[in-house]
Fold each of these.
Amino acid sequence: MSGNEAIALAAYEAGVKVASGYPGTPSTEIMENLSRYEGVYTEWAPNEKVGLEVAIGASFAGVRALATMKHVGVNVAADPLFTASYTGGRGGLVVLTADDPEMHSSQNEQDNRNYAYAAKLPMLEPSDPSEAKTLLKEAFELSERLDTPVLFRITTRVAHVKGVVSKGEMMTSAATCGIEKMPAKFVMLPGNARNRRKVVEERMGELRKIAETDEYNRVEAGDRKRGFITGGVSYLYVKEAFPEATVLKLGMSWPLPEEKIKAFAATVDELFVVEELDPFLEHHIKAMGVACHGKDCIPNQGELNTAIVRKAIDPGSAPKLFSAPDLPMRPPNMCAGCPHRGVFYNLSRMKDIFVSGDIGCYTLGFLPPLSAMDSCVCMGASVTIAHGMAKALGAAGKGKLVSVIGDSTFIHSGITGLINSVYNNSASVLIILDNRITAMTGQQNNPASGCNIKGEPANSIDLEELCRAVGVKHVDEVNPHDISACKTALKTALDRDEMSVLISRAPCVLIPEMKKAQHIPYLTTTENCSGCRSCVQLGCPAISWTPLTPEEAEALGYKKKQKGFAVITEVQCNGCGQCAALCKFEAINRKGE
Amino acid sequence: MGAIGNILFSGVGGQGILLASEITAYALLSAGYDAKKSEVHGMAQRGGSVTAQLRYGEKVYSPLIEPGKADILVSFEMMEAARYLPYLHKESKVIVNTQQIKPPSVAMGQVAYPLDVLDAITSQGIQVVTVAAFDIARDVGEVKAANVVMVGAMSNFLPMAAEVYEEIINTRVPERFREVNIKAFRAGRQTSS
């Protein structure tokens, strides 16, 4: 099973009773899998801060609790995280961060080991799915034994790696479920917090002792000419690149076992610290007065692998490789029939506007041929960046600032930005791309979907009413597949002197109901095609262009100057009809019409 | 450490690469190997280039295949085979679905699809087996089973018997797709045996 499946199984076996998270690659499948186990309450929270606070509450009530998020989600949850370090809890509390070195599906590759140092919390870090299962269960024991939240860090190559994992024993929490008032610990007024601050330091002292003796951190004996200190997935690359060498494997990334590290360093001729991203271990090891190699040879960007580690340490060892021919790139694209395409097509036709984007599938609106996104920073930043630009530009920005955000991202952290825009009198346009689902991470339900994590009926937020309630006077809804209605709605909104919200409403083609539905595809009548390329400009993966030479054009009965014709691949078409609306030559029609 | 076998699956998001690599991984596990598989979810799956990496042997540490070390490359799309040439060595076996899926720049008519793309592999002396997996899958009744046709074609280069794969399809694939997937597997296995 995958690392994420193993973590879900471990949480179940550890006796977790409450788990909350926000979807984010590569963490999403943990909560999805955990939701299928009996006896564990799971939920999708609107954002990571909410999710962590829910888990803290469950811990205060004396049950084991888990919060899951991707690395950037910890930034959102950092506020409760730093103070939960002071309060501790009652039931075991684990905060899982899934980091994404190489940014396979992320906007940055921050190294969340730094949070363990900054928040004064222990961090455990497995190397593969099997170890993830073992370590997560130990994390809950550690949390209760030391009265501390435990940070649990995985990376993409643990989360989405599949390996052999065994089922284990069920565990129970040492805490009892119930209301227990512990004001000195739970009420972080300055007076109490100052006392807890001392407790945090005492706890870190205890944790340092545990780091020295516990099996988390182990020496694997071997050739002592070179010694390696490593952890997480980097350990695997070291074992493959230098199978004969001695290794100190750190399963606990923070705090570090200073005595163990010094003793290990003394036994080897040359010490290498191998870690992905930041020189986290290296800096702390050097601060102990231990000389080592680290980022002087190991890259500090992107993922590592066996070849990179071997070459970094033995530069002459790199094998000669075949080189790939020059090939057209294959970037990701919005799906055929994606409702977002209709909005971005219209935005791409509007001159001089600035489109402030957000995080989701629709960020792909940046790519050609639509190329209709001018900024993307973090969750919820679309509406706020547009507002900031509006205030900076003044009259020069009128009618030029559009922000786009998905339904899930709007609920995550777009609402507060919209409140700011209304309160502080912005005149930009916010488009909420409501496709009913958190699509990019694999179609998770959210508070606007009408279903909970298990797919059971749930309250559904009325986005239109919500926008009106925070004071937006102009809230309109549009069907994004209706290209011309979408264009009119956008122009009307941009002409206003007040904040407008346009809700683009059509379901994602990947949600189960849409996948099951029988879509009637559109087909091309190629003899009617004039080669105008209007449909091709949509960038739909179901539409392709066949170029023609003048001779070929004539032979097919076209005018000699026609440069080619468009064809729809029937099996790929989801029948949205956006292309048919753009065709002025009766060359695209619904099948059977 | 014993020798590690490396199988690289490449193709385009949505082609069923994850299921194909899953069936192969279970087949290797039931033959007594340790195995690890790495894949990437999220944004890359939206029609972009996708790989799954499968490694097997007595004890597997790294989930990632090193460049120059892939023993088998199974490409679900023709051009995607050549993209991973740096992962191959002289004795690699390459099994290619001859289906062509146009990337955006080709679909837009900006560049042509490189029809001679497999020459880049064969000119290095590497064995290439071509499989018309899409057509074969259509003939057995389900175009979406092209991925299992490819598993069948690849299975000839691994030591396990056909029954091992069929048992896995029978236990791991939803019931209504089993029969067509068994047919697809057998048709694929016949292509390169």
Amino acid sequence: MTVAAYPTARRRAAPATLRAVIPLAPALILLALFFLIPMFELARMSVYEYNHVSVYVPRLTTANYRAFFSDPYYATMVWTSLKVGFFTTFFTVLAGYPVAYYLTGIDGWERTLLSAACLFPLFVTILVGTLGWYILLLPFGLTQKVLVAAGLLHGPLSALNTFTALIVVMVYLHLPYVILIMASSLQGVGRDKINAARVLGAPPVYILRRILVPLTMPGIASSAILVFALSISSYLVPVLITGQRLRVLPMAIFSFTTDILNWPLASVLSIVLLVIVVAATYAFTAITNRLTGRGRWEMI
Amino acid sequence: MRGGLLRVYAYAVAAVMVLPILMTLPASVTTTAYMTFPPVGFTLAWFPKAFGDGPLVASLVRSVDIAFVSAAIAVAAGLAAAFAVERHAFRGRDLVETLFTGPQMVPQIILVLGLLIFYHSLGLSGTLLGLMLSHMIIALPFAFRTLLVSVATLDRRLEWSAAILGANRRQILWRIIFPQMKTGVIAALIFSFMSSFTNFTMALFLAGVGRTTLPVEMFNRLYVAGMTPAIPAMSFLLGLLGVMMFIAADRTLGVYKYLGGGGQ
Amino acid sequence: MAMAQAGAAAQPRGAGLEPMLELVGVEKTLGKTRVVCDLHLAIAPGEFVTLLGPSGCGKSTTLNLIAGLLKPDAGTISLRGHVVNAWEPQRRRLGMVFQTWALFPHMTAYENIAFGLRLKGLGMRDVRERVATMLSLVRLPGVEEKYPSQLSGGMQQRVALARALATRPDVLLLDEPLSNLDERLRKEMQIELRRIHDELRVTTIFVTHSQEEALVLSDRVAVMNNGVIVRIDTPERLYRYPRTRFVCTFLGEANILEGVVTAVDGGRVLVDHASGPLAVDTSAPVRPGVRMSLALRPEAISIRLARSPDPVNSIPATIRDVVYKGEALVYYLTAAGADLMALEYAKGGAPRAEGDQVFAEFEASALSVLEDA
């Protein structure tokens, strides 16, 4: 990852004197205070006792975890969250890959303007994009209400539509991440290799399958992991678009934290979410590495 | 021809990406006092009214303040750290680098709960300072990574030449190193600012009552109460601002260079 | 221009057969620049033709047009008599080696070479046989299971060549494939390429900016500048009779002497030059009074301390500088009205020194007439 334009930059770095490392201290202190300690506090809170008067009591207990694992309500929630994560990731990567490919072939104003459009959700608050979709879906929401009232539509169907709407908005919001990462990854492959394959007689789909995808697999993996982590921890979009009809972990975390004030249980849910993200990261990395035999060869 | 199909697809996606902001425009010109689509009538009155909305403007100002301060702290700390990490080898350097990616890797909704608990014991709950610091910690990994790239591409031979010619450390820093870092620092500042300004999750949990940031204020209007077409009006303006900032940033700095990494 | 373009003076090897590759009136504009202008080129089967020229002359673009990676704005490109303008690269049965070699890093050398063969539907046994043949052709047996990152630059280059030749293409295209190699390796590969070409007799188009490579490898060289082929001819004829100032100075070193014709006697012309009269052998139709530019190669000059008994051309000069090049000595001379550069192969004996007064002598046939005075 280190971009060393001159070979002296990294390998021959001077051995550290204490004085030289002092500039590192402020950042490390900030990280310790506002990252490490909060994470520790979170873990600790998950094993504290819940008390609806004082929110929590600093006595160790596994009651919260037991409550989580024994209640099917939470299992459903985890399942819904996973579905949201996987569907979003799948469609976002699928949709974003060709766009990134096209972007690597152009430059100048065309590239800037097209990028401005495709990366749009990144540089405005997610509320702007979500609000836009909310407005777009309003008539549909209205239509749904009318149909249900008229007895022409029943529960499950509207729930299905709601899920679809959610995924659409999620894909929309996360597409920029895929495009950014894949554009960089595709750039690294280089036009020459693709042209070589063309002259050797490979049709476009073959090139995609046997050249592009294997060589951009690290990019696919990292963008997929990023989108997965972001999408299953999203609060705003499920709340706005499905209006609480779909229950995902972040919504429960929010309501337990601010409404019900059961911080221990909220912490448990957060830890569970974290474990899911970490597990998915490892699993995905391992799978993609195995698929392309990455340990055996290096990019040239 | 295949090339043509790809271009059509790319432009179709671009059109869809722009669609939502285009939706906020018609929603903000309705004459009704509530948000409805399609709009009823036509008026531009909601745009100035958005700026007359006290709490909304206050949250806007607050967002800007927080963004400035948190970006400044993140870039300052990140800059110092980038130098220390890039220029010196020490045991645990890789561990430190991994540590820096932490706040980015952990989903915000998890980190914010930890911060909430921590602040509670410190008495920082609901304070502006607490919120600012939480925005800062989110921006720090990104600022660090950007500046690391910047430091790594410095031409050390210029520094050595200056030293041979008799410059002391401070002079080298100010007159050789910082001019080269200008672009990287500006990029880090801009992206840190934007990350803070657009952040939603942190303020959702940590902001005190009546002291929210713009995204949360807009959300409360939409989801809880107080929704008017001023909200889509403000959205549209924010969208416009964002686009202009992006175009400016890309033409001068090159967005892909700074945001792309992490692929290979 | 028309005379230069047609290359009429140079008959390609295998003349009389239908050209394997033909470009007629090809144009290409990239951005705002006309990179290739009204290009005409005909290449016979089995020929080795080099496109030689400075950066930006359009040689790589021409190669990409032939490969089908770019489409021409005007004109036709024909392979084996068929007009292939609209054909995708996949269809054209070509082999190509890129400057970066473009090996697939996630495939072994075997899989790289087999890539094109598998696409043609060859069975596993045939593929294995062909890959082995190719690897022994490029003198690289035993690297089948290695990945490109495990191979040296020279080896990667050979694998790239093997990959391009594996499918038995009609035409082999080489885009500066030796540029990324160091000096010694480059010279080795030049000889290898020549050997492989002699063995396979594949029609080959080679792009380079190195005039040495062009002269060593080619049956014919097309010298390009600003999108046009300035001259196309055999290396010998191009070197000896450059005919234009550009070709003359691009291919090797040259002294350029200018003067006015004083007398014409059959095939011999007398030209008045600042340093004295020059005798030139030429069949060009000239009359006294005409201005003439002449090219003189440094190696054609002999340095003598005393004037030869009956010299054809002998110019008195002072040695300004002597440069030792190992196999040769380069003398920089100052004569009346001209600075000359002379090259002599070191055959022992004391070299002349700076400040010596000498005579620069050369044959009448050593002077070559330049057409664009």
Amino acid sequence: MRAFAEMYAALDETTKTNEKVEALTRYFSQVPPADAAWAATFLIGRRPKRLLESRKLAQWAIEESSIPDWLFGECYHAVGDFAETIALLLPPAQSSSNLPLHYWIEERLLPLRDADDEAKRASLVSAWREMDERQRFAWNKIITGEFRVGVSQSLVVRAVAAVSGLDAAVVSHRLMGDWQPTAEFWTQLVAHQASEATRDADVSRPYPFFLAYPLEGAIEELGGIREWQVEWKWDGIRAQLIHRDWRTFVWSRGEELMTDRFPELEALGAQLPEGVVVDGEVLPWMNGEPLPFAQMQRRIGRKVLGPRILSEVPVVIVAYDLLELAGVDIRERPLEFRRARLEEIAPPNSALIVSPVVRADTWQELAVRRQEARARKVEGFMLKRLGSPYRVGRRRGDWWKWKIEPYSVDAVLIYAQPGHGRRASLFTDYTFGVWDGNELVPFAKAYSGLTDEEIRQVDAFVRGNTIEKFGPVRAVKPELVFELAFEGIQRSPRHRSGIAVRFPRMARWRTDKRAKDADTLETIRALLPPGRPGVID
Amino acid sequence: MDRAVVTHAHSDHACPGSRAYLTAQPGEALLRVRVGGEAPIQALEYGESVRLKGVHVSLHPAGHILGSAQVRIESGGEVWVVSGDYKLEPDPTCTAFEPVACHTFVTESTFGLPIYRWPPEADVFAEIHAWWAANQQAGKASVLFAYSLGKAQRVLAGLLAGMDTAAGPIYTHGAVENFCRLYREAGIALAPTTPAGAAPPATDWSRALILAPPSANGTHGLIGSRRFGPLSTGLVSGWMRIRGARRRRSLDRGFVLSDHADWPGIMSAIRASGASRVWVTHGYRAAVVEWLKQQGGEAQAIETRFEGELDETGAEPAEAEP
């Protein structure tokens, strides 16, 4: 655990990618395989099912630290990180053990699954007492499942590639799909020959997704339009549909196995030939067009999928690409080849819809067609270079997304609360209001889009212009106006404004505007898609 | 003001404009820098008492920086002590904090939350030396930010012990060097320094430690000038106890060393004063007051003109660099 805690601290202390990879490489090469496997699991954002509730963790930390609840709350607001707050508050450790990471996970944490609260408390408190502050912090990060340390999957891949001498694309692929963090897994991950034992995992293993960057600069800079395949950019759940060994799997881009969420797609598997992997977007679909994404959320939220929801919100996969055919990886073949094979295997009148290609003879013509996007319920275009392979991860050059301009609204800052992590104890999380008559009604929350300098200025404004406090939340004088950008807008009975927006962020600080110049609820309602008032669509 | 009683020479506690000043003798030269050459400064020995408008006033060591003092005020048998900024940890650059018995104690609360608990000073200096050595290995200059008055000198005194093994030159920013000179004149031993401005153009910075005020950590300051080549940055401050405070300043390292009392320090200073009433200022006033009340004490928060709520600009003493 000491090595793990030191690695965590080393990652945390640098923003330089190379130094992070070095810290990971150093760690992976010095620890036993079981430790490396667990560490990789946490670093790429997987985690065992959460075993301990935050509320109880806080309570036990409070008891162990002999402070009142409210003081824990004050400390948490100053630190902005739950795991760190606990590590800083616990009394100094009497001793510091150096047991390996896999011991802590397998022998101490996982057995708590079936334990009662008292046993959990006793086990946790004794763990804290055996660790120095650094170890406690890393441990708390593990048990709270908030293991973010600025390491992306690609950095872990680079470190594993460095340790093993394997190609990064091979490592990336081996890290996909369904695997358990064991010493055996790690040994196979870094092995130069894939062993028989990996076959089982291979059956369900997806490929790393190829992701697009937003278009930079003018569209004409991409060259001739004939070198590009253009598709609509759909807004659903990016996924891979896998059919191998007469079994079907659906993986989301977040590497969640979602097969049981989509019985339509599982059934679709039986209509596909053996050994195929389709990349696409899962969408709620009816009468030849997508339903609002809120409908998908409604369906995803269900534990049990009854016949009613299945008939109200059926899903399809809009297929973008074919990655495997007859059990052979075809990602290196040109786009046209993969597209042609995809069209061949697509069963007619099924839940698989090949993403239509948008035809245009000039970029100007395409720009005009882009205006159709909102009516078609898509986010814009995807541009794919003909002849290109299916690459790994987010890359510039062969795929671009060309999204439509976001909606924009001028709103007034009315509430602020402190952020987390590097924004701890700075007021960075804002609620914005728009005018409804003489009243400002809360309309959206936004956290991103300002520069550090602007954040400092807004923070100072909040401190100097608080009119009321509600716990950590400050109501401020309604003076500052911001232009908010967002992607989608819907009616929502759960919001006081009656409106919910998707991906709101601050596009600009309108220092040239005063509160009275901000937009009204009425003008925002006019942006809503047509529909009966009061009905969720 | 006709006469200002100055606890110490940080710029948020000492400013020009008063007709006369009273301060502790070891801090006289530092206060002179702040208030200029003309204003009369009356310097008292620690413990020496004067009568001002019918009350007895004396100054007692606060352990914050050179010449820092608590102010004891006595009138008709009633004793009040105003702590000014203080710390309880030993510091070779100033006289140690001395508890003064009183009825009412006015305490600062910059770090008045139980998350603030200082590690042993020796550990922190070992960390700084290790960081410096690792940077030398990697061919990087070590840029260490510390407040130019007090903290920088404490760092130089603390580094002295490890200087024989970790050979490397220490360069200073002008603001730091000015106060170093005054400390050395007061007879305080500091690790040897060279003003960075006086270094020849061909200087190899990769083995050097460069001590600069936090305000130099910007694209327009000394550090942004790129004259030092590849570098690693660190800040010495109590705020570095929290990762977020380090990360949002884009620093490579934070070293937890403060000239203010931590939570246990504040509580033990209050106990040692024997005061039955506590006034709390500067910092986490509400939390300290609430805690003291729950422990059965009498406490209240008092406003101050001289702070942002949480001192978010990152100044430990909110220091304007001279």
